[in-house]
Every structure is written in structure tokens, then in C-alpha cells.
Amino acid sequence: MSTTPTGTETGTSRRNFLKAAGLSGAAFALGFSSVDSFASPVLNLSGQPGMALPESVELNPYILIEKSGRIVLMNPRPEIGQGTYQSIPALIAEELEVSLDNVTIRQTGGETKYGGMWSQAVGGSGSVRGGYMQMRKVGASAREMLRQAASQQWAVPIGECIAENATIVHKPSGKKLTYGQLAEVAAKLPVPKEPALKDPKQFSMLGKPMPRPDVPLKVAGQATFGIDAKVPGMVYASIERCPVLGSKLVSFDASKSLKVKGVQKAVKVERVVGKNRYEGVAIIADNYWAALQGRKALSVTWDHNNFDTFNSADFENKLRDLAKTDGVQGHNTGDFDKSFADAPNKVEALYETPMVSHSTMEPMNALAHYKPDGKVELWVSSQGGDLVRGDVAKVLNVKPDDITVHILFNGGGFGRRITQDFATEAATLSKTIGKPVKVVWTREDDTQLGPFRPMTFSAMRGALSADGKAIALQHKVISPSIDATMNEKYDKTKADDTMLEGTGDQKYEIPNLNTRYVHADMHVPLTYWRSVTSSTLAFSHECFIDEMAHKAGQDPLAFRMSMLTKDSDAKRVLTKLKEVSGWDNPLPEGKGRGIAQWEFFAGLAGQVVEVSKNKTGGIKVDKVYCVIDLGTVVNPDNVKAQMEGSIAMALTAATKDAITFEKGQAVQKNFDANRMLRINEMPTVEVHILAEGGPTIKGVGEPGLPPLAPALANAIFAATGKRIRRMPFDLEKV
Amino acid sequence: MALVKLTINNQPHTIDVDPEMPLLWAIRDVVGLTGTKFGCGVAQCGACTVHLDGAPIRSCSYPASAAAGHKITTIEGLSKNADHPVQKAWIEHQVPQCGYCQSGQIMSAVALLKQNPKPSDEDIDTAMQGNICRCGTYERIRKAIHSASTEMASAPKMPKSTPKIGKL
Description:
Radius of gyration of chain B: 15 Å
CATH architecture of the largest domain in chain B: Roll
Distance between the termini of chain B: 26 Å
Number of strands of chain A: 27
CATH architecture of the largest domain in chain A: 2-Layer Sandwich
Low-confidence stretches of chain B: 162-168
Structural class of chain B: alpha+beta
Strand order of the largest sheet of chain B: 2-1-5-3-4
Structural class of chain A: alpha+beta
Largest sheet of chain B: 5 strands, mixed
Number of helices of chain B: 5
Oligomer: heterodimer
Low-confidence stretches of chain A: 1-60
Strand content of chain B: 5-15%
Order of helices and strands of chain B: EEHEEEHHHH
CATH topology of the largest domain in chain B: Ubiquitin-like (UB roll)
CATH superfamily of the largest domain in chain A: Aldehyde oxidase/xanthine dehydrogenase, molybdopterin binding domain
Helix content of chain B: 25-40%
CATH class of the largest domain in chain A: Alpha Beta
Largest sheet of chain A: 7 strands, mixed
Strand order of the largest sheet of chain A: 10-11-8-18-15-16-17
């Protein structure tokens, strides 16, 4: 196997591209003209207008073939742990008839030839479901051109030329030509717009568990992450930014910092997060440790401008007050007000969820070199080379084509690396001091400065008929907004779709369904966090459905099934969960099980959680059954891994630490106070994938997350009779 | 600044650093081995785990000068071809997702198996609690440690050395 951990090769023209890729004239790109049908339908994150579909997908070289036969596949989707370093090249390789063992995988760096904004970003569980047909067509087109080239060379019918294992074989004569031998001729042929795709029954890779090519690098310590990048002459920076978000820099005194051996300079630098600008002071040094020591010796005067009065307790009270207001309408079916007023049985509850951090294991960092000719080169762990280019271009007023981005392995993303503040900091500093600069955030920076997942409060109201049927449900979300903290032009008069995510989309047949949004202004920057607002709204929604079931005197699963009379994916998921979890088998005293499902933009999954009461008090999570509905699956073992990971992350968010503010700053600074799930707390996870094949393909990276917290809280209710309506909850103290 | 003599993966290095510089930054920034990772800086996450005379330490909180005269092993020095039984088990079970914490996880697992060649799930949980994996690969880590344990039990015995217990 041949892989390039440092991955990215870029350039502004194909010629430069090939040169930069270290390929000689013996390499030929199989180019593709723009084909609209290749465009991805699903790459908008959570339906945000600012994150629209790629304008176009210009298919330029995803496939490079050298005469030696070496095949280079360009992967447009950064690897953040979710497996795109394999899954995307596998889609191409399957149709191209090459083994991933014999290809080199490189990351694209945001070049416009690969498409518009978001064409090279990861988010919304969209890489595979968006690229499933597109990337297969990329591979199939090249395969057809290679078959055509062989057929011409041998003067035989193309039907007799079979592609297998990077070779075209003439079946009647047994003659063979390698892709390397055919590439030059093939590259000159017209690109088939609708190449024949393989019958999924013929797949050699897709749909089967595939080992990931990045795994051997990662167990050898050889995978290059952003933080590992090095270039000659580079210096290190650590930046002091005010933890009281919103403060202005009045003055600083770096005289003591400059006495630290290895410290070179102290300079002002701005951090840009959406519409927000934060000032900071960077200590530039020979090594990172010296930069940190210099930063400790720094004296800074900040003007907090009253932001130091902000605290979570007051803000939560404000949300509780706002919960009494009507807000604006999101989804509406039937007449909630009337049916609720007339109903014989009613349930009402307020659910509360907190801000949390992303806490990728690799802290934010970037290496940037602003060169004398005004061109910029960056080496970075980021969720999008195109996003890096876009933001660096804007902040430094540089043409995007003058920016070269090397996307390296990301030590976690979870949505945090959609924001490129670390990259623009490094590029700005490099411009200021005229050297390549590597900015590395401390864990404290990473934990305290956001952007965070937003908190949401949910005012729930439900009504039941006399015979226990759900007849009305209202889900009112009270929250600050991701979009409002990022964009100047936020419209407060409209229902915020992202903050209402999924609340109107569940398949339950409730005749009167109303969702509402109440906006709460907050200055703390917020962003997408794995499964976005579904990570909190599924908790309130699916716990409340449980409350309604109990009010109706029904089994929570039976109650849900009674609202799913028509065939639906959700019904199939719950049916499967019932079977695999042994839902109807009674549990011993002191144990309980809970269920939840959630359908949203990324996909659909359901979970049953089993818990037991500890003899010494508290709750232990014994087992999680997870059913994910996909339609089509690419790498089942990776899907399983993503479910395990989503469950661990959801369990952390549900039962560990929130980000809370006092005196204007986040109280939690490092993993001692912002605790993460550890190995002794990991439950057994059993994953079942619903994938019958066919045209449907749903997301994998996020859907495993939303059902966990409600299924767990529902299980705790079943075991203890205690209803949890606020996250996080401490399992030791339940 | 002071000259510090370090032996890393059997290679001698003499580096001129602040004696208080944590071993992590000496390894990464000065010696240039980047397989060992920075996660928290306060010995809370285990991403920086290396071996000092065979025992695991958190290199982010261990002064480089204190490591002088000891044998330091990083992920790069664990095996010649990334074929230590623990590394092989990590591949067999497809443990890593993002992979950032895995150097530290592997170094902790190797140290565990040295002290306890047949660990139970409980032993694994106790020994590996100091290593955070944000991607949630914990179940696979457990399985991989059991696989490596089996593999090492069937392999020819290596000369036995008694590792000192290092400060975590």
C-alpha cells in the first residue's frame, strides 16, 4: 500500500498541479468536463442558507495515473476520524477497478476546480451520501475511457475489453494493457457523461467491511496531523486572548516575555469567528514551550465592556422567562391550541440543555506562510480546504487562487473545524512578522473560547385523548442561535430552522403538531457540534414522548408504534430495535431500559439503553442497542465504529460537564473540570445496520448521537421512577 | 538553557533547552519526533504518553532534564515496522478513528501488558483510564488488548526486565 500522510498537493493550473504533486510528464490526468448530474444534492449543513449547495461540481482530476501504473486518487473530503480517507477513494476505486492497496490517496486543498464552497468540506454527515453517485461516476468515466483506449489500440470491439485490477484485458486473446500504458491515450478521449455504473451485486469493496488505509499510519505514529506540520524557518506562537469574550485590548506589556529565552516578539493579532472579532497578543518564539512561557510572563489590560457580568445562571433564568412567550411558528399541522384546550389529558414540561465544547483531542492549530509575493500557504487540520481558502482570502484580502492549503489528518473535528479562526490567526501573524508561523492553542484556549454547541430549552406541551392516543404536541425551543452569533444579517422575526432541527420531522402521526422558536440574544459564539441541534432537541422531544406514554399508561415502545401506523423508516427502526433488544423480556428489579429514535437532516437511528442501579447509589449504563437506517452501506465496520463513537460522545454530553459562564468567562478550562468519558465508563454497544440497498443512502457520522441521551434518561425513569429534564445529569447522583 | 542528554528510541540526543521544558516539547519540537501528541498539557488525557525505562509517563508534565540518563521510548521506537503485537492488534480491530490519541493509548497498553500479560476487562479499564479517546474507540481498545495479550502469550518469550513504576 502506498499512502501519503502529508497528503495535499495543490496548484493553480493543471501543469502546476502535476508539478506540485511531484509527478513527471509521465503522469496524465483524466479530466472531466462539468457534468451537472454529478452535483451533490445534500451538502448543505442543516439547511442553512449560508451553507448552500455547491454552485457546481467541476470535475477536474480526481484520478491521476502515472506511466508506472501508480494511481493517485484525490480525496476532496478531509479525514476527521469519520473514515472519508477511505470511503471516498473506495467509491472511485470500485468503479475504476483498482484496489485501494495500490493507490496513493491525496487530499484536495480547496481548489476551485473541484467545485464551489463546501465541495471539499466535511459536515452534515454528507460526504458519502453526497458523493455516492458522484464519485462512482468519476471512477466509471475513467474506466470507460481506459476501455475505449484499449479497444482502439487493439482494434477490437469495446465489449471485449474488460477492466480488472488496474488493467484492461482483451478476453478473447488474453492481451493486457495496464492503466499506466493506456493513460496517455485515454486522457484525450471524450469524457462519457453517463458512464455505466456497476451493479451493486458486483461490488468487490463497497458494502463489505474494509480495513482503513489510515489505520497503519496512525498506529505507527506516522500519520501527519496539522499540529505535526513543519517547514523551514518556522516559528511558534501562543496567543493570549481574553477569556471574557467580547473584551477589548487596551494595552500590553511584553517586556518580561521578551526576556524568556527563545521568545522573539509579541504582536497583536485578531481572531475572526463569523461576525465576531477578538483581539489577542501573540508571543512568537523558537519553540512552543518558550512561546507558552513568554505568554505567562505577559501583562495585558483588557476593557471588559460589561461582558464580565455575563453568567449562565442569569442567562438560564432569562430563557425560563422567555419560555412563557409565544415566539414564532416553525412547523404546523392541524390546530394545536384548540386540540390542547379541549383535551382530557395533558402533559407539560420544560427541558433544559447546556452549551458544550467540541474538545477535539488535537487542539486547534495552524501553520501558515504569507510569502513576499503575497501568496499564502497553509498546513492545517480543518474540515474544509475550501473553507480555509475562503476565510483566509476574506480576512487577509488575498485572492483565493493565491492560497494553497494542505489538509492534514484532523485529530477530531465534530464541527469545531468548520470555523477557521485558527487558520486566519496563523496567516495574519505570518503576514505581520514575515515568517512561517505555527499557532497552537492550549487546551485551556480550546475549552474556554468557543465557539460552543448552543444550549436549548424546550417548552413541551402534549395532549392525549381519553383512550390514550397522542392528539397534540407542541415543541417550543427557546435558545440563542448559531446563525445569530455568526452572521450580522440574522433575521430575528423568523423561525430559526437550525434551532428547530428535526422537531417537525418525526414520523409520529400526531394530528396537531406545532413547533415554535423563541430567540434569546447571546454574545458567546456558537457553532455546529456533531448532530447540531438534534443533539439537544432529541433529548427533550423523545423524553417528552416517553412522558406522554406514561401518562397514557402505555409501554413507551408500544406508544410510539401506535403513532406509526403507516410504513416508514422510523417504524422499521423501532421494529428492529424491539427485536434485537428483547424489549418484551422483563428485566430484573433495579434495571431499566429506555428507547428513543431521531430522524433529521443527517439520517435516522434509534437506540435502546439498558441501565442498572448501583448498590452504592447511582446508575450504570450496561448496554446500548443501536439501529441505524442507511438504505445503502459503504463500509459496515466503519458505520459500527461511528455508532460507537457517537454513543461515547453523546454519553459525555449527557452525563459529564457543561460549559458554564461566570463573570463573563467559561468556568471549565481543561479535562479536569470539562470531563470526557473514559474507558471504564464505556458501555457495550451492539449495532444493527438497516441497509437493503437501493437508491437511498443516509448519513453515518451524526445519526448515532441524538437518540442516546433520551434513551438513557428514559431508561433511568424505567429503573428509578425519576424523570430527568435537564442535561447534563450526573450518573453517580441520579 | 542547559545541555540535556536524552536517549530516545536508543538514539542519543544532546539538546540545548530550558531544563524545565517538558519532555513532550523536547521530543516534538527539538528532536522532531511528532508521533507523541499534545492533548492537555496537564497530564489529564494521556495523548503524550511515552515510556521511561519501560514505564508509562505523561511527557507533557515531565521535565526533559529529569529524563536524562533514562531510556525513553516513543511510538516511533516501539517496533521497527509498526509490528509490535499491540500495534498489530490495533490494526486487526481497526481501533483508530481520528487516531490522535492512539500513540498514547498504544504506549499505555504496551506498558500494561508488560506488567500484566493477561489483563481482565477490569484491569484494562484501570490501566487505560488515563487515556481519553474523544472518538470513543474504547470497546475496540479493550478487544485489541485482549488480542495482543493472546498473541504475546503464544510468541517466544522475550528476556524479562523489571520496569520501574513511573509517575503518571
